[in-house]
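User: My instructor asked us to take a sequence, write out its structure as tokens, and then describe one feature of it. I'm not sure where to start. Here is the sequence I was given:
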Amino acid sequence: MTRWTLAPLLTLALTACGGGDDGGDNGGGTGPVVPLPDGVTIILSDSEERIGAGSAVALYAEPENGNSRDYRYQWRQLSGSDVDITNPRSPIAAFDLPETGSYQFEVTLTDRSGETLVESISFSAGGASANLSVSRDHMVTEGNRVSLRVQSRLFTNPDSGERNWVLPANIQWEQVSGAAVSNVVNEEPELLLFSTPAVGEDTLLTFKATGTVEGDIQVEDTVWVLVTAEAAVPDESLMGLVADGLNKPGFARVQSYRSDSPWASALERCVYNPIITDPCALNDLPLTGTEAGGDPSLDQVLDRVVVSHPWMGEQFEAFLRQQEQNGNTDFRRLLGAVTAVVISYDVRPSFYWVVTGAIYLDPEDLWMTPWQRDSINEAPDYRSGFGSELQFIIPWRYTFENEYASLFYPQWARVERPMSGLEPDLASLLYHELAHANDFFPRSIQPGLSAPTLWDAYLERDADGIVSDDLTNMYALRSAEMFSLAGVNFQGDSPTVAERNYTPADVTGFFEPDRASDFYAYSTEREDLAMLFEEAMMQHRYGILRDVAVTSTRSAIPELDLIVDWGQRGRIGETKLDERLKLVLNALLPEEVGLVDTLDTPIPMRPGENWFDNIDLSAPAAEIQLAPQRQSLAPAAAEGRWSSGPRHRHHLPGLTH
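Assistant: Let's start with the prediction itself. The structure tokens for your sequence are:
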């Protein structure tokens, strides 16, 4: 099936077919055998006398000939204080040095036939402690986005003993070597964003950041970006539809998390490979639930994970194992509806795509350490400016016992996050994306699912309608105004004059009487289903309640900032949503349909107070005066997380019913 025949179908069904032929490769897995290079040279990113405790260091394994895409890389530390290599499967090994001393590392290159080439390097770090470090030296495919950040450092006030994260002053960036980059953004002095150039061979770009500390002491650091030459992307690339729909300029190299997975070759060929133009056969990569008869084991699930960095798979596995130990088998069972889980540093936003049958996860909800977070691209969600002309906001957040259930960690706060700290965000993300997958392929049809491709399997189901179609046909949302506003806020449609003038009170009148659980439910019928399922399961499994409100827009004036016109905690418990939720649960997790009767009665917010003061709904109403602003426009470290837009996405913008 060609791109030109597939695209019109996508506009009707939000889906297509994930592909696969043997003509492309995404990191040394398939294709013809290319001989190992004659040799490999390991280059240290800075001189030994300039490297000290806290320095950001990189090693580049440069082959004497050939292209890095033709080989597998594996780094291993042989001696020295333990370091965390950000991506040990990359030509670039990047890490922070914990202390001075001697270090030794080894890299192994493996070609497609299994032949190997091994090289090692030793160095002694004897320099002063770093006063300026840039995160992160790394590999990126040509044309993709890059983010580089000057790290903050922990400073102790000698007088008060108070410790604070501080950045160097007067930060300046300079490209020192390599082909020119494009789309440069440097709105925050410490953060540099750009797109890499097209290259004919692997090309090392070097950037330098300078600044001052302790008044006028000059400090600097350099950082490498290895731009890799990739196989030419055909005009009919299936993943090109994702690139077009999500404003995504490139795709990172990914590998099967488990190198010994029986599905490794098919995963790397089918789910994140821009070279493919035709769908993979369903026999080559069936749904996990089809393989397992509807009830996959945890090992069967983990055999389907694809990552850009090994730590992402490790975190995902640790989370799933903890959930199983706690008695929550939801995710394992729901993952039967996917062919793969793709976790990559360049995925933003998260989404599900029936083209491949995979869910694609932004690893922002997985990191636990600063070095892990450093490897995630900071390019903003392309939807971040949608709805800016409207005179209202519909914010949401998750709460637990009148407190924020999840916390916001700004980039400058180089702190660790416990598993419990990421659980609310990752769990809600998975419930949402897996609701989409199970909407298309619920457990009842997974055993014995047979068709030439997953696309063909979908078309057979689409003739009778999938679960979200049934939801719309039986219990449709009614507000035409909210549907139109959702197009503005989530699809980037231009608002009408009337929509620009809607007040929060107007929007409350549109939203509150209807039976949507959230504003995002109006973006597509698929999101309507996913929002119902996500909120219900978060309350049922974790006792975490979702807030939604209609408020004024953001303002630097406290008396005008996010003033609540109407709001609820736990709207999913509204009786007018009961039959809608029962339909969804009966299809996706039929054993849990009884939870509808156990949901908490929604709690109203206090109109006239701001969004932040409405976090504690057990408190008495404030006296007749507007409450002060609790959270500034630039929230501090580990403050409550909230949002006024979608964090999740399953379909491609513009490819709607």
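For the description part of your assignment, you could build on this observation: The longest strand covers residues 217-228. Try explaining in your own words what that tells you about the chain.
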